[in-house]
Amino acid sequence: MTTWAIAFGTIYLLLLCYAAYKTFVKHTSADQFMLAGKSIGPVLGILTFAAALFSSFTFLGMPDFFRTHGVGAWVFLGVSDGAMVFMILWFGYRVRKKVKQLGFKGMAGLVTTVYQNKWAGYVLFAGAFIFLVPYAAIQVKGMAIFFSAAFPGALPFWAWALITLCLILIYSQTGGFKALVYSDVIQGMLLLLTIWLICIGCLNKMGGFASAVQQVHDVNEKLLSTPGPKGLFNTQFLITSLIAIVMIPVTQPQMSTRIVVLKNSASLNRMAIAVGIFAILVIFPTAFIGFYGAIHYSTLSVQDFLGKALLADQAGIVAGLAIIGLFACVLSATNSKIFALGSELRSLLTGSEKQVMLKVKLSLVLFATITFIAAINVNDQLALLSKTSFTGTAMMAPLVLTAVLCKRKPGGEIIAFSAIALIIFILSLATYVPAKIAGLNIELWLFAALALLSFISAGVRGIMQPEISAAL
Known about the structure:
The chain has helices spanning about 1-25, 30-35, 40-55, 55-70, 70-100, 105-115, 120-150, 155-205, 210-220, 235-245, 250, 255-260, 265-295, 300-310, 315-350, 355-375, 380-395, 395-405, 410-430, 440-460, 465-470, and strands spanning about 435, 440. The protein is mainly α. The protein has a single domain, classed as Sodium/glucose cotransporter. It has a two-stranded antiparallel sheet. A hairpin with a 2-residue loop joins strand 1 (about 435) and strand 2. Helix 1 runs parallel beside helix 15.
């Protein structure tokens, strides 16, 4: 395994060095560095969006989620991601139209321009920062867990996280956004190949699909239905998950940016459809890896389960590829989130291009440092923490959608509604506000209130585009 990991790792690092050099020599402006000149084609667009969306969360979080909670994990993520494809198309067309009118440096800057109020951008940036940094930390945490299992005693836990974040900073500071796109391409292909090889290995040990399902039934039949053995996948959980995941292209800047930088609408259409197919191909095999864990390693910790199922029980070449595949996932996904925060900050700053870019590059170091601190403190429930991140950023959806769909300046009350909802949700996570009110999850109340208040505000002011007003 170690020999194969070194061989694959060397190839991977050489490809990254080439990508960083190739993009570095083409940096002629801040826009080229931060947004790749808004000229990403469909093939690169497909893989960069998919890689940013499906990362170590899919690689590590979903197998453990299936192992612990059963087939309902498919409804949680697979069905929700399928629905998200329609949002990519619907929102993508409209935000690109808006960007053509107003220009684009980041979503925070775009909403600031539309609302003519700097607080709109500040609230959006705050929501992204508060929930993307822990999300990035989850990726690093998952990688450190995996590497600790792969090389026990080689390095302390924090060292794996530190090395990863240092490489992320060097790569992003050198190559910029286009280099991130190239690393996404490599990561997307590695993820798909590795996850299926591991799945096939697990299926062979379980005797095929039918035998695997029967063995899971014998171990714990509740794994084969919702709400699952721990009752997680109830109606409210699945509804809030659906809303949160569908809103990812709207509210998570690393995804919104990838929609905006596509060179044309045809690229957007191809990308959206391909991402839906990619979602099915990459999530499906994690179910059987999880089932394998439920059958053989149901009582083990996450770290021990992953070490057994993804490494010890696989052929050496597959285990070596898994190590590099996971590292690529973490590098790409964490980089995209940290870099997206830098882009959002840039869109809020004023001054000369040189001064702004210096502040942005320093901010990337700051965001990486905060991510490192968070990574050594968050727990190992990758999938649940990711769902919390999706839900938190989804609170910003009315703020963004109103800005994109309006024909005139929206009211400041929408900014206030969004800020209040964000604060309430954070307080509920800290248990200062009840997680449920009248039997409904607090996020459902917040989603409903935000949608209603934003519709009322837009309707009273008459600011929506004619076709949107007619639909409403």
